[in-house]
Amino acid sequence: MNKINELLGNSHYKLVESVLSDDIDHLLLYIAVASMKFSGHRYGSFLDAATTAAKLAIYTTYLEQDRKLRRTGLIHHVETKRVKAIVREVESAIIDGDELKSFGSKEPRYLIGFPHMWIKKYPYVSGPRFKNYEITRRELTYLENMLPQATPSALVLSNHQFMEVLEEMHSCYISEKVNNQASVLSDAMAEHMKYCLLSSGTVLRVKLEQTNESVFLLAKTTYSPNQYSSRVGEVIRDTLDFFKSMRLWAQKSRNVFRALEMLQIRPEDQEEAYKELDVFLLDWANKYHSENGESRILNLTVGPKY
Prior knowledge:
306 residues
């Protein structure tokens, strides 16, 4: 008990990590914590999803081993008859279109592109941003003061225009899916997406006194979820993207560039350094982005070295 109390003095994670030895165990721990404590998934659903992942791992080995059941079982320490049952279950799901048990996702990943879609569809060139709305001089002053100094070059949108951009984002997402296997944008999902954009500070909403109409202002060209549970969801997705890229890097793929730098930054310089890096990455991405190019993702964090 003394050891437990000592570990609790540092962190709950330290306590749990004390009974785990491998990095892969730590990774699984963080996935379990993220899914169960912060994303609201049940204990049973976590076990179901882990079981499904293990079954799919066995099935991919089965394919790699020229569909030899016994060899697959030896590799994963599974009885041949159990491998056979797993193969039958997975192939049945593929052929019949059945769904294996899994977690599922809660927040659309494509919201990161929302500001760019807004700017592309409703660019601001010159003149008053609020020319299409009936507002008082007091409201105009208030709205202009609300906007950040580096306001994106985008027009103010009505609720109808705002929803149009959301629908177009979703349509582009569907078009990239194989056989259009994506859900239709429901009213509930659209409202959830709107909430995410507003709570993150990417979008500002103001109700006009004259017409009682809500208008939307683009405050940032970036989107990052504000709620802790949403941020934990991003951790999972970012980790998955990074893991996929690192797997290709391990296979010596020329499509992946791995970057690793270790340095020491004075605390008083940290904020400026991070802002400078953010601007550099945005300029780099804008320079090399092409509508006809191949999709790439840059996954990067800068933080303390443990």
